[in-house]
Amino acid sequence: MARRRLSQRTGKSEPDGPYEGVPPHLTHLLEHWFDSVLSSGPGGYFSNTETIRELASFMRTSVPAGWDAHDVAAGLLKLGRANGDYFLDLIDGLLQLRGSETNGRALARLLETSGSVWTVADDNRSLIRVVSDQTQSTYEIATSPEDDASEELREAWTNAFGRDGDPSDAWDHAIKAVEDVLIPAVVPNQAKANLGHVVGQLRNQGNQWKLVLPGKAQDHDVSPLVGMLDVIWPNHDRHGGVSSKRQPSEEEARAVVTLASTIVQWHREGWVVQRR
Questions:
Q1: Do 21 and 96 belong together in one domain?
Q2: DSSP strand E in the chain: where?
Q3: Residue 13 above 50 pLDDT?
Q4: Same domain for 151 and 105
């Protein structure tokens, strides 16, 4: 969460932000970070000529014959100052090429201080959208074990909250993450099982399962979970007739991935279990 000034904490001024693009107060900070990454080494910019060459290519910016590393880096920054989206792509691209814990931590601090909607991914290799502390905590618990479900959920998260993500891929990977934890538990003997089989089993044999939450009837019914799974399954971009097929929106993808994180976390915590 972004820091707040004293006047905001005391109610004398309204909170500002979060900022979508690159506001003026963030521009000079990003320039400084960019410069510190690419000028590191005994030769300054000339120690990082290969990275600068790759970054220019990544940004589809031509490099003239007899190019100078410092001039090309300065040219990329000039283009960034003129266009906030380009600047964010530039920073994201540099993370992909030179992401590290040190570089990522420094950049995340600058973005947080400036009230940006962007922060640095856990692997320090890309920019992702800031989410609430509670949502972030749920995701971290859900992906804490190193297994297939965590890998799928990380891919879903990056596509849902990262720059230039793919909402449909985010939805698909969210489904796969939920399938990875629920198929072995609910329909372990089903051939070529998918989430639809899980939903059908829980809906038809729900009396064999219970949630940790007692519910209004105090019967630990799993119907709330079934309702959550109904929302996730299927991805409308992959199933249904031509008239019903459509690319999901970014907001829908983020909601589905957040919901999938919750379901996987419930499984991790043992909050959905078979009755004995």
A1: yes
A2: 118-120, 127-129, 209-211, 272-274
A3: yes
A4: no
